[in-house]
Every structure is written in C-alpha cells, then in structure tokens.
Design goal:
This protein is an alpha+beta fold. The protein is built from six helices and eight strands.
C-alpha cells in the first residue's frame, strides 16, 4: 500500500486542561520528552503528533489506541513492537504536524520554508544539490524540499540524522507543498 498522510495545523496553544488530558494517553517516555520542551509550541506539536499517529494507526489498521504500545529503535524511531507490519513516521515544523502510516517502513518530514542559509546547505547538500539550489528561483523552497527528502529517507531507514547527509540524494515517493511548508515521504515498496 502507499502511505496515508495525516496533517493538522496547530494555530493556537493547547489549553492546559486539554494538554493534560491528551498527555495522559502518551506513554511515559514520550510524556517525559514532551514535558522537557521549553517552547510551548514544540510541546504541543510533539503531543499532537503522538495523538495524530495513534488516530492514523487506528483509522488505517483498526488497532485500538489502548493496544498501541510504542517502542523506540536504536536511533529513536518509534514502532509498534506488537504490530511489525505497521509503520509510521511523525514530523512537525512550526504549527504543521504530519504523520504517515504504511505497511512497510516509512519516513515523513515537514519543513517550513524560511530564510535560506547557504552555510547549512553546504554542510548537508551534495555538489549537484548545491547547483540545483543556486539555479533555483526560490532557493529557500528548493533547500527545504531537499532537506525534507533527506530527513524522510533517514527516518524510513531508521538510521538517524547522524549519517553523512551529503551522500544521501533521495527522490521522495511523495512530495507536497501546503501553504509555506514542504512535506516529503519515502517508503519501501512491498
């Protein structure tokens, strides 16, 4: 199956009562990570991403939320140990939260298009990617698309962002633009 993508926009901070109620559904490790966030928008987006993943898995695979016990892989990729054929990936940037679910490994990333930073591009992009950016009318958008594709790919592989990103030049299976956000999804074909 192709991945199904779920998105939500978090335009307003979650009210404290709603935040605490939703937090009660998060697993202890996730709850601790959310509560360590210093920026309210980040905490809200992490919590909404967790809830969105639970909803997506229930909707697509009919697994009740109470049976979705998340475990983290070696590099922090979440998975459902009791359901090895269910895969999901969560990402958030600013106020947009996404989750992709699939029956094969999947990685999703969203990036808000913002100011282009050449030094960052030189650190993570290959020579051909730098040429693509320099020839682009909208350098910020092109860089965000390339960055989102790289993150989606390493999330799909479950290897973490610590690898040499210059050597990764993935072509995302799904590439979307919603308002000023770039979304890329990579998945293993079954």
């Amino acid at each position: 199956m192709k991945p199904e993508i779920f998105c939500l926009i978090n335009d307003f901070p979650l009210e404290d009562g709603i935040f605490r109620y939703m937090l009660s559904f998060a697993e202890p490790e996730k709850r601790e990570r959310i509560l360590r966030q210093r920026i309210k928008l980040n905490a809200d987006s992490m919590l909404l991403g967790d809830m969105l993943a639970k909803f997506a898995v229930k909707k697509v695979f009919s697994v009740p939320v109470c049976r979705q016990k998340t475990t983290l892989g070696k590099y922090g990729k979440p998975y459902l140990a009791a359901y090895p054929d269910i895969h999901f990936s969560i990402s958030h940037s600013d106020s947009l939260v996404i989750c992709a679910v699939c029956d094969t490994p999947v990685g999703a990333d969203v990036q808000k298009v913002c100011e282009y930073k050449p030094a960052l591009a030189e650190h993570v992009c290959s020579g051909s990617e730098l040429c693509e950016i320099s020839g682009s009318v909208d350098k910020a958008d092109t860089f965000c698309r390339l960055w989102a594709a790289k993150e989606a790919f390493v999330k799909m592989k479950g290897v973490g962002i610590g690898c040499d990103l210059k050597k990764i030049n993935p072509k995302p299976d799904i590439s979307l633009c919603i308002e000023n956000y770039r979304i890329c999804v990579c998945y293993e074909k079954g």
